[in-house]
Structure formats: structure tokens, C-alpha cells
Amino acid sequence: MEAKTKDLWVFVETKEDGSARNVGLELLNPGRRLADGQGGRLAAVIIGNKADAAVKAAGEQGADQVILVEGEEYAHYTTDAYVNAMEHLITKYGPTTLLIGATSYGRDMGPRLSARLKSGLTADCTSLDLEAGTGNMAWTRPAFGGNLMATIICPDGRPQIGTVRPGVFKKQAPMESHAEVIREDYHVPAGKIRTRLLEVIHEAAEAVVDLEGADIIVSGGRGVGGPEGFGVVKELAEALGGVVGSSRAAVDAGWIPYAHQVGQTGKTVAPKLYIACGISGAIQHLAGMSGSDCIIAINKDEEAPIFEVANYGIVGNLHEILPLLTAEVKKLKA
Fold first, then answer.
1. DSSP character at residue 259
2. Same fold, 8-200 and 206-333
3. For the segment 87-122, what is each residue's pLDDT rounded down to a tens digit?
4. For residue range 33-82, what is the model confidence (pLDDT) as tens digits?
5. How far, in Å, CA of 274 to CA of 289, rounded?
6. Domain boundaries defined on the chain
7. Is this structure's pTM higher than 0.90?
8. What is the rounded distance in angstroms from the CA atom of residue 292 to the CA atom of residue 311?
């Protein structure tokens, strides 16, 4: 389809209570720069139910517009309701670019929209820019198992659609909102929604590791030596008030569940502090944590690639070093 505007849209997901999920707010940060570069407005698109909190948060993150679709049918994500609503909005307003978080919802919505609109889609992006002189998005994502980074351009289809992993970008400090709020009265007939939520199992939800929202992550890799080796990693994480992460090697070995995995095939994180314990630093792992504010690496191999991205490095046995760090942290808290 043809773009009617030069506007850039960011899909802001909502939680059950109507507040915004972090990934959409994070994308408003690069969205501001990209929208200005394309000569258009930055709009946050919110589909949900009783989502005033999300509207407020999007305005405070610098959106020029907030386009809101509300209704009981949007209280929980369903493919039919959300994709139909977003297709309606895009057809009506014609943005040139759409950014979506690469969450379970975004990875469902993005390809379906792309197929319906006959537009390109670039998935799991880690960097966003504009092609010089054209206004086309330059989407960068890992390729060939994370061994190289590919930049992809979709010059013909509009809107240009891309999904971006949570944690790749950071939210701005909240500002005074000047966003224009557009409330779209669009409802999807019940007969068109082919799935319905039967039950929410909170016990399973509580067990999910919140790596993407953590300020402190202590991760273990092959160097911990086995599942019992994560004991010292967990102790330090608990002392610091952080969470436990891992490399793919530790997950593949069955030492720790996949929910803890950081990297290209796990979660992309950007905490204030990331402590890598016994992790060599393969490019697939670095792709998931190199945006951390401060990286501390602990490894017996002084030639390990992880030291190239670390702010601080300790060459030594993690099983000797971590208990000492944990003891010092506990002393400071006493």
C-alpha cells in the first residue's frame, strides 16, 4: 500500500491493568530520532482496555500522537482482534514505518500485518537507522546464527515494519506530555475472533525470570562446571538484589532452564550491571548483553573475548572469587 504520511508508529503493548509494557516505551526513544529524520510525527499506537496509564506513559516518552483503540475484546491479546484493529488503523492513516516489540505478541502480529498489507518485515532487529538520502529504514539484525550483522532495506512496501527485541534500547527520562490523543472507535465483531482466553495460570507466570526488567544480572556459563556451580552465581545475585542469567552453553548442557538464557537465541538485556561468570563471550552472547551500562567479566582465560567488551575484568576461578564478592556485598548491607 502507499504511505499517506511520513509518520513513524510504535506499537505500545499493554498489561492486564492497562499500563504499558517497557518494550513499546523503549522504542519511542529511537522512534523520535527516526521520525524526525523521515520528516514525520512520532505516534504511539495502543490497543487495549482501560489503557489511560499507557497513554500517559507514551506521552511522557515523547510521542507527538497517541492513537488509542479500546474495548473489552482487547483486554487480552488475540491475533484476530489486534491484527484487525491495527490493519484498520494503518489503512486509515497510512504511516510510513511501524516498530513493534519482538515479544510473543509482536512476533505474531508483525508477520500477519506484513502479509495482509503486502509490506516487508524485518524481524529481531538490534539496530535502527535511516538510509542516507532516501528515508528508507535500515534495519540491522544478526544473521547466520549471529556470526554477522545484516542491514536490510525494504524500499517498496509501506509501511516498513520491523520487530525489535526488548532491552535493545532504553527509555528516556519522563518528560511533560504534549501528545495529541486520538481515540478510535473500532470494534472487532465477536464472530471474527476465533480464539478466546479460558484461563490465566498465575503460578506459571510468577516463575518467569524477568531478565529484561532487571537492573542487575549475574550470569553463568560453561565455566561454572555444572548445575551445582550456579549456586555461587545465585548467592551473589541474591545479595545484589539481581537475577540469574546464563549463556546458551549452560542451557544446552541442561544446567539451568532456558528462561535464564541471555543472547541471540535468548533474551536481550541492558541492565545497569551485568556480571559474566565463566562466559567466554561468543558473538551470540554478546549480542544479547553488550548494551549493559557496566559489564564485569570473571574468567580463568585471560584471552576470553568477553574481556574485550567488559568495563572491568577479573582473571581467576569464579568459585573462589564469587563467594568473596558475595561476602563483601553482605558486609556493606549489614
1. G
2. yes
3. 999 999 999 999 999 999 999 999 999 999 999 899
4. 999 999 999 999 999 999 999 999 999 999 999 999 999 999 999 999 99
5. 8
6. 8-200, 206-333
7. no
8. 10
User: In this structure, what C-alpha cell is assigned to residue 99?
Assistant: 516498530
> How many whole angstroms from its chain centre is CA 314?
30
Indicate the SS3 state at residue 68. Answer: strand
Q: Which amino acid is residue 44, in one-letter code? A: A
Instruction: Judge contact between 61 and 29, C-beta under 8 A.
Output: yes
Fold for domain 206-333?
A: Rossmann fold (3.40.50)
Segment 153-208, tens digit of pLDDT: 988 889 999 999 888 888 889 999 899 999 999 999 888 899 888 887 765 544 56
Residues present in the chain in total? 334
123: closest CA among 135, 134, 131, 112? 112
Give yes or no for a contact between 66 and 10, defined as CB atoms under 8 angstroms apart. no
Average pLDDT, the chain: 91
At the topology level of CATH, where does 8-200 sit?
A: Rossmann fold (3.40.50)
- 161: how many CB neighbours lie within 10 A of its CB? 28
